[in-house]
Amino acid sequence: MADDCFAHPRLAAVYDPLHSGRADLDAYLGMAEEFGARRVLDIGCGTGVFALLLAGRGIEVVGVDPAGASLDVARAKPGGERVRWIHGDATGLPPLRADLATMTGNVAQAVVDPHAWRETLRGAREALRPGGRLVFETRDPARRGWAEWTREQSYFVTEVPGAGTVEYWVELTEVSGPLVTFRQSYAFGADGQVLTSDSTLRFRERAEVERDLLAQGYVVEEVRDAPDRPGRELVFVARRP
After folding, report:
1. What pTM did the predictor assign?
2. Which phi and psi (to 5°) does residue 229 adopt?
3. Of 239, 237, 169, 155, nearest to 197 (Cα)?
4. pLDDT tens digits, residue range 198-226?
5. Residue of 33, 25, 15, 7 whose CA lies nearest to 229
6. What Gene Ontology terms for biological process does this UniProt record contain (predicted)?
7. What are the respective helix, strand and coil percentages of the chain, to the nearest 5?
8. What confidence tens digit (pLDDT) does each residue in 167-179 have?
């Protein structure tokens, strides 16, 4: 089930204005070019920012996401008709023979259940052609990034076209082993409504991720650093033999 920040229509509509400046996607665009990808599966595509960037380069893209409200936003964007949008997850995809499958924006961490994680990796592998690659990022747990998830460090106000002013902040609510839970709050100036969205992420160690990939039949080619967040992210490049 998708979190409210993606599944609630009012929150999905303001997601992009509140999370603009996606410099993290530059590295993924570069890897699509590096690997000569002509068909890409974007797992957890959300509002379609990355999928549409790829489609704008003439790449055939399939975007899959469990949040219908986010997909509605994606479909309505200019160029939305160029992408094949699927409401669901990576565990029940049709045959695709993709050159590249991606999970950007720490989507991998949102799959917290171990069985669901294994099934996600399996589904992505089946969607790839032999030699195709899965690329995704996850926060390095050693950096304890959740310590910065406070109202004081996250609060801002922005003017959203068509929605008015929106106040936004994040608060950490629980850390239990590898699971980190936090709450995002949205205060709409237009009518005073305050909406919240609770999310839990799993912080996996590098060795754990590599074991999971090997167990699902991948070859782990390398683990890169995220150029926009040096020392904070692990970017896995795995190949279907």
Report:
1. 0.96
2. -140, 65
3. 169
4. 999 999 999 999 999 999 999 999 999 99
5. 25
6. methylation
7. 35, 35, 30
8. 999 999 999 999 9
Give the pLDDT confidence of 105-148 residue by residue, as tens digits. Answer: 999 999 999 999 999 999 999 999 999 999 999 999 999 999 99
DSSP assignment of 25-88: HHHHHHHHHHTT-SEEEEET-TTSHHHHHHHTTT-EEEEEES-HHHHHHHHHSTTGGGSEEEES
**DSSP 8-class letter at 99:** E
Say which residues have a Cβ less than 8 Å from residue 209's Cβ, sequence separation at least 6.
138, 234, 236
With 0-12 CB in 10 A as exposed, 13-18 as middle and 19+ as buried, what is 8?
buried
Give the integer Cα–Cα distance in Å for 7 and 62.
19
Residue 16: both structure tokens together: 């992009």
Separation in Å, CA 238 to CA 15, 63, 104, 158, 193: 30, 19, 14, 38, 44
Query: Who contacts 197 (Cβ-Cβ below 8 Å, separation ≥6)?
Result: 3, 4, 5, 8, 11, 183, 184, 186
Question: 80: which 2 tokens?
Answer: 């939305």
